[in-house]
Amino acid sequence: MKTEDVSLQGIEWQFLSPEGSALLAKSSLLGEVVKTNPKRRVVRLPSIYVKEVRYRGWPMLFKTLLGGTACREGRISLALTESGIAVPEVLAFGVEKKFGFIRRDLLLTREESRCKTLHQVMLRDYPALPGKEKHQLVEEFANFMRILHDNGVSHADLHIGNILWVPERERGHRFILLDTDRVTLKKRALSTGEKTDNLALLLSNLWTLVSRSQRFRFLRVYGIYLDRKGRRFVAELEGKALRHSKRILRKKGQQCLHNNRRFRKEKRNGFTVYFRKRAGIEDLLDNLLADPDGILEKGRILKAGNTVRAARVELNGRYYFLKRFNCKGWSYSLKNAFRRSRAVRSWLISWGFRLRSLPVPEPLICLEERRMRLLKRSYILFNFVEDSEPLTGVWPRLDAIERKGILARLALLFGKLHLFGGVHGDLKWNNILVNDQGALFLIDLDGSRIVGPGKYRSKRKDLDRFLVDLAKAQPGNKDQAFFLKCWERWKS
Hints:
Elements: E1 3-7, E2 11-16, H1 18-23, E3 28-36, E4 40-45, E5 48-54, H2 58-66, H3 69-82, E6 90-98, E7 101-110, E8 116-117, H4 118-125, H5 131-150, E9 153-155, E10 163-168, E11 172-177, E12 183-185, H6 192-206, H7 212-222, H8 228-253, E13 263-268, E14 271-276, H9 281-290, H10 292-298, E15 300-304, E16 308-315, E17 318-325, H11 330-335, H12 342-355, E18 363-371, E19 374-383, E20 388-390, H13 391-394, H14 400-419, E21 422-423, E22 432-435, E23 440-442, E24 449-450, H15 456-473, H16 478-490
Antiparallel strand pairs: 1-3, 2-6, 3-4, 4-5, 5-7, 6-7, 8-10, 9-12, 10-11, 13-14, 14-18, 15-16, 16-17, 17-19, 18-19, 20-22, 21-24, 22-23
């Protein structure tokens, strides 16, 4: 982890706690960099976080008049603490000015021990919790949100990454609000419209991680009763949440096509290269670019068609899934001269599905070859799903109860897919993998797309392909009716 110094020289302190005063005897603070960009950075010391915000140009003038971001967060956090709202404990905040203009400001807060962001909890811990503990977590979080809104707290960037979760034996779960510089404090409880707007921000990503029954549990504990007025509120809330989610996820999904802190795009060896920044990726990319066709042919061929050739390949001692989209002559090159290759479309949709918490193999590298804009070969490399086989191979070994269970899980999976506007395009059983632990994965996303909310006909057509194989494997309408009933419950 990179370490950096945060200078304390020139800071005019606007608030100092006794512990903060003791820290500021030093001229600088050395810690691990948690987050950094040209405008701000967050540094972690033992049990303390330091947030530094820097200003240049017009923002420097505006912030001089309106007040710095870090100091605003400190003042709001102090006000929230007085109202009984849990926020990180403020130790100190202050500004550095030059010629009367603010240049930077600092905020020091105490680190909460044993905490995680609610986003981490919902992604990693929540799925494995027993039903009773899931109910408790959802109910206590709903109570936390009700208290916020009853106290007039409106957060303009309310998402589960901005909320900390702290387990406590006696009190069950405690939640802490972060990034309070985006908070507006009102002298009254939020109105119905303000609650709807604020909850829509929160639920746009929480909705992907909880079941429909847990959503209604959250709303009931929050104080929404499903009478006529309550149903109208829920319908408006879900519509806003889905629209907001669609905007945010589309924007985040596009990041995989550009240079940023998570992804990189560059030209190498005649290819446009897209890859995920992670340890070891450069060595992997160098080996692949040396001879992608040779590596493909040395692997275990899994698909060999005129359009696509795919294999399990070994690189740097690990197995990966490599797929090549073949160039089929001049007409193919001309037709795709001004549109993305199938590899890039698969790269984009794979990351779009992963953002929606859908189980697809992680894409690592995408290569696209063009000459004078004419499309030639394109490739995409995925992590290989070890110890797995298609649903067609797993189904005959399952008993009646296990078959019903996997159908219910698939209905949940497809319901989440369709709720957030996704369509797979080829839901045959060979495109559904089951690993040794029973986890499900969707593969072969070449025909997948995101059509948005609604579009019932497209989503039902998506299911029809799945039902064809279900009818072959299990003749009769009983299992089909059970599956469709579960899907109808989850898809909305």
